[in-house]
Amino acid sequence: MPRTIWSGAISFGLVTVPIHVQSATEDHSVRFHQYHLVDGGRVRYRKVCELEDREVEQSEIGKGYEVSRDQVVPISDAELDNLPLPTARAVEIDAFVPLDSIDPIRLGDGYYLAPDGQVAAKPYKLLLQALGRSSRVAVAKWAWHGRERLGILRVKDDVLVLQMMRWPDEIRDPAEVAPPAVSVSEREIDGALALMDTMAREDLEGPEFRDTYTEALEKIIEAKREDREPAEAPEPEAEPSQVLDLMAALNESVARARHSRGEGEGEADVHEMRPPKKTTKKQTAGKTGKKPSGRRPRSA
User: Fold this and answer.
1) What is the pLDDT of residues 90-129, one digit of tens each?
2) Which one has a higher pLDDT value, 285 or 60?
3) CB 102 within 8 A of CB 162
4) How would DSSP label each residue in 104-136?
5) What is the DSSP letter of 42?
C-alpha cells in the first residue's frame, strides 16, 4: 500500500471529508549511482556549511529566503504549516467544470485520495457518486510544498483522484514556437487523415506500450553481473531521407501501417475526394432500364 504523503480534508460547501493523499503512479526507472572509475568508490553529494566549512546533519538544516547575499529570512516548517489560508490543511473546492474545458497541457501528476477512517466513508462516497453522475470535475486549491496548488478532483473506478494543474501564468505562449507560414492542400490533409485512420485504436493496452528501454537496460545489467557479454543491438533501419514528396510519404506510411496490421500487402494510394458530377435531364433521359448484371440466365 502506498504511503500517505499529505493528510487533510476536502471542503465541499459545509461538507468535510477527511482524506489521505497517496501517490497514484510508480516510477520504474533504473537508478544509477556515481562512482570513481579508478577504484569503484561511491561519489556522494555532501551538505557543507560555507561559513564553518564542515558537513552538517539534516537536523541542523532549515529553510530560508535570501533577501540579499548578507541577509536570509528563516522560515520554519511550523510557520509553513500554519499559514493564514483556508487551503493550508484542506482541499477547497471552488467550482465544477466539464473535463473537456481544461487544456490537457495544464494537467500534472495524479494522486489517490483515501478516506480517513469510517467517519469519512459516507461523505467520501457522496462526493464520489455526485461527481460521477454530474460528468464534471471539481476545481480545487490547497497549500502543499511551500505554495498554493491548483488541481481537479475526478473519479477513477471507485476512488477520487486529485490531479495537479498548472496555473494559467505557468503556461507559455505557444505562438513562440508556431511554424512559419506555409500552405497545406486538402489532398495532403486527406492523406494525413487516412494515415491516422490506419493507426487508430480503442485503447493503449498491448505489448507495444511498454518501457522497452528499461527492459533492455536491465538485461545489460544482468549480463554484466553474471560476467556475460550483453546481447548485440539489432541493426538499425536505414535512416529516412529528407521528405521531398509529402503525398508519396503519406501513401507509403499508409501502406506500411496497413501491412503491420495485416490488412493487405499492396500499396494504398490516398486520393483527393472530388464532388460527384452533376447530371442533366438530357443525360438521364437517354438511359433506360438497369445495367446488365453480367450473370448468365439459368437453363430451364
Assistant:
1) 888 999 999 999 999 999 999 999 999 898 999 999 999 9
2) 60
3) no
4) GGGEEEEEEEEE-SGGGHHHHHHHHHHHHHHT-
5) B
